[in-house]
Amino acid sequence: MKRIIAIAAAILAVAGANALGSSNKQKVLKLDFTEQVVERKTSSLDLTGLLSGSLSADQITLLQYVRAIDAAAQDPKISGIYMTPDNQSLGMAGAEEIRAALARFRQSGKPVISYCNTLGNASYYLASVADKVIVNPQSENMLTGLSTMQFFLKDALDALGIEMQLIRHGKYKSAGEMYIRNDISPENRQQYEELLGSIWDSWCQDISQSRGFTPQEFNSWIDGLELVLAQDFKERGIVDETWFRHQVEEYLCQTFGFEDIDQAKYIKIGKYAGKLKKGSFAKRIAVIYADGEIVMDGSERNIVGPKLAATIQKVRKDPTIAGVVFRVNSPGGSVEASEIIRQEIKSLCHEKPVVVSYGDYAASGGYWISAGAGQIFTDRSTLTGSIGVFSMIPSVGQAVRSKLKVNPVTIGTNDHSTMTGAIEKLTADEQDYFQKQVEEIYEQFTGIVAEGRNLSQEFVDSIAQGRVWSGSESLKIGLTDKVGGLADAIAHMASQLGFGSNFRIVEYPEYQEVGILAMLMGNTPDPDENLTSGIQKTNVIDLEKAFPFAASLRYLEGPATYARLPFIMIAR
Questions:
Q1: Reading across the β-sheet that carries 294-295, which strands appear in turn?
Q2: What distance in Å separates the CA atoms of residue 552 and residue 568, rounded to the nearest whole number?
């Protein structure tokens, strides 16, 4: 594993040599996390880009971010890194990959300095890797460990007269449980406790290794509520200094040889990443992104099954592409769309070498599409597995009649013509009908995993049942192969192909920069992405960020079969 990390750093650093042109002045790479770190750029409307006239304002991909840090380690014109991770908004696996890149940077002998006005779980996880960790003396820090919150809506739906009929396979498949229970099930509680515990253990090990105390000590301070004032953090070695900003600026001047802070030469990571050379055109490795929810139709914000399948086919037929890294960052979604993608990935694997890299999520449909696609690299914080299937069928007839005083009358040609209308409750025979569909798809899912991972289907069933596993746990049970991020997966593919460090990374789906005028006129790569729909969809996305459970309200539209996580987790 150390060899792969070293190769990754070397490969990604070569492209950064002389990245800053002819200037001989030393610069400090600045990471203030004001850029939005994304898996891939899309041509969708970003309201923050309106002022700049660009749809991609302040966006940087995770690969660009990591690649820039690795390149800076080898760049003689970069003397160190100064970061302020207070405002980070990364996923947990994204934070892990950036922290690993910072750890590699430190091996170059150049300093990493971190300053925070306020420390939280995720910001401290990033800050703790630095040579010097500084916090504001008046900071209101909050290290509490990881937590999650779930909302259970059965009582509210009962009051409205709405009944959700959940049909599933897997005792841990908790998607939909919020509609049929008013409290968490024992199985669901167990999987969340173990999932969060596994991720937190990984974070504590990284933090403790960097800071020189034990995970047991760190957790005892948190559990004992001993970390109140900034001085408490310093006394226990959690931070090195409690300084105000002007003191930090004096230290930066001393460390990097600036005459005064006004003369400081910083370069933001987004600008630095934009200056990196892309490498040789002769040798090419493709990174195919499967980022978002898996759907049958829609915009590029999600994984549209037929569209991604067409992209994979294009890569398969391109003779200039020698190998592929399949980057999956998805909580799942449509079973139909997932199978369309899987079939095309299967064809790709017959013609080109493929390795898989997991981001924050590779669960349910995200695991379905990738289980048979070669070696799988996972971050320890990745959420994966969730091998299970469910259907949701609402019954709103009582609500319409009693609350709205409207009497719907349904007419059909056959005994069960109206069972998908979401008005009346399913009969026992109709429930059996949907259960057979779910059971068949679950059998197919476990069979796909068994074949792809060279496991018995009985064993897959024992670790499936809809259960979600952390990346660390998935390694132990054979769902993944190696710990590592996207850079590690690319390095592994380059090594497998014998490319050394001179090759070019090409990314799919291809990104096209689109201006505001083009958006106004509807001239976008994706016809769904005109100005009006872009604003509307942005508002929906904002709602789902604020209330993650709101995303699941789409299940009220009618019956469908899903392989999907019931939640989204972010680092805080």
A1: 163-169, 389-395, 561-564, 332-334, 294-295, 303-304
A2: 11
Closest alpha carbon to 562 in 398, 423, 393: 393
Rounded distance, CA 255 to CA 266, Å?
Answer: 13
* Angle, CA 339 vertex, CA 338 and CA 341 arms, to 5°: 70
List beta partners, residue 504: 284
Percent of the chain with pLDDT over 70: 82
Note every long-range contact of 183-192, with CB atoms under 8 Å and residues 24 or more positions apart, other chains counting: 183/152, 184/150, 184/152, 188/150, 191/467, 191/468, 192/148
- Give me the amino acid identity at 321: I
347: left (phi over 0), alpha (psi -120 to 50) or beta: alpha
The yes-or-no verdict on residue 52 having pLDDT over 90 is no
Please state which of the ranges 65-69, 436-440, 457-461, 517-521 shows the lowest mean pLDDT: 517-521
pLDDT band (50, 70, 90) for residue 560: low
In terms of residues, how long is the chain? 572
Under 8 Å between Cβ of 55 and 45: yes
Type of residue found at 419: M
Give the span between the Cα atoms of 420 and 565, in whole angstroms: 23
Segments in 107-153 forming alpha helices (H)? 121-127
Helix (H, G, I), strand (E, B) or coil at 132: strand
Both structure tokens of 535: 């604003």
3-state secondary structure 57-83: CCEEEHHHHHHHHHHHHHCCCEEEEEE
Mean pLDDT across 531-548: 37
Q: Token match 């004032």: residue?
A: 229
CB-based contact 392:558 (threshold 8 Å): no
Bridge partners of residue 115, in order along the sequence: 134
Q: Is the pLDDT of residue 113 over 70?
A: yes
Query: What pTM was computed for the model?
Result: 0.84
